[in-house]
Amino acid sequence: xxxxxxxxxxxxxxxxxxxxxxxxxxxxxxxxxxxxxxxxxxxxxxxxxxxxxxxxxxxxxxxxxxxxxxxxxxxxxxxxxxxxxxxxxxxxxxxxxxxxxxxxxxxxxxxxxxxxxxxxxxxxxxxxxxxxxxxxxxxxxxxxxxxxxxxxxxxxxxxxxxxxxxxxxxxxxxxxxxxxxxxxxxxxxxxxxxxxxxxxxxxxxxxxxxxxxxxxxxxxxxxxxxxxxxxxxxxxxxxxxxxxxxxxxxxxxxxxxxxxxxxxxxxxxxxxxxxxxxxxxxxxxxxxxxxxxxxxxxxxxxxxxxxxxxxxxxxxxxxxxxxxxxxxxxxxxxxxxxxxxxxxxxxxxxxxxxxxxxxxxxxxxxxxxxxxxxxxxxxxxxxx
Length: 384
Ligand code: NZQ
Ligand code: ZN
Prior knowledge:
48% helix
């Protein structure tokens, strides 16, 4: 096990109806608030009305900026920064999913910074301060509600880049599973795929003696595999929604990280796909992860046997570890298919024409096995 420091400041307020307390919570930490949201789902579901009513009841002064797109764009972030400066905003309330939260985080670090916010993503500067961000989560997926990362797309050059710093962990997150009843099944499925990927990125490590966190990862993965398919026929099953919402947060708030070194190649490779083809992140991961597994498992076959046996319940003869690994990957793919996600690039109309370009942009990647552009091209070919 590696040395580690664990801290996570995000207060989680979980359960039925909790978002009614948002005005009270925000009024304690803000004078002027930016209410930030996406393309309109919160208006259709009535959540917008409840949030604004709660803010008004608590006397919170707020302005708003909607229109965040999935794969959030730096252009809107820049508009948000200007707006916050002009209006003297001192707190950002993100109501939505990973895209809205990441846009809010980027606005937050952009406001006190003299240069252009893209400098952070281009690694030309590091943020030193931020406006605080609070969250009302509407889709369990990215885990941004208590993660230390943000991922933004720059339309110029079709770049999608992440940035990690503990500065940007939200102050609080309201997590009401009922708010996720309205999700189309495709978005629920993409969310399940993303949270599973966040755990697998951590699980596939070359660090030895990480038994406690191995078993924590395995438990949460098994819970996702069990509960997510229930939501196909029962979108209003509170218990399954609650398990998935908790899993999505735990998957990416570093609770499962202690003492490990994560891989993150599949995420890096997927970001190149969603930058160019604007596909949902969770769908891209369902395609890339199995291909990555097939390409790298020889680096430590025992770890993949452990995954197949303990997570995927594979029960084949121990004399043939390769067959055990392949069956584990096949069962992971069967889960994605049950969730109606694509598992190959051709299913979503992507051909090999830009493999080289994406591989060059992504490389080098990974810690379980360090991948160069040639390796990444081969992974794309396996995913075709
Ligand atoms: O925009 P609206 O109209 O709100 O619709 C959204 C959007 O179209 C819809 N939706 C959300 N809640 C809903 C709902 N529809 C009906 N009912 C509800 N309750 O769902 C769609 C997807 O929303 P989005 O926020 O894009 O999804 P997600 O949470 O999966 O976020 C994806 C983004 O997060 C990044 C991804 O790369 C991607 O850009 N990630 C961020 C991470 C982080 N900050 O820690 C880590 C992740 O690995 C990931 O990279
Ligand atoms: Zn992800």
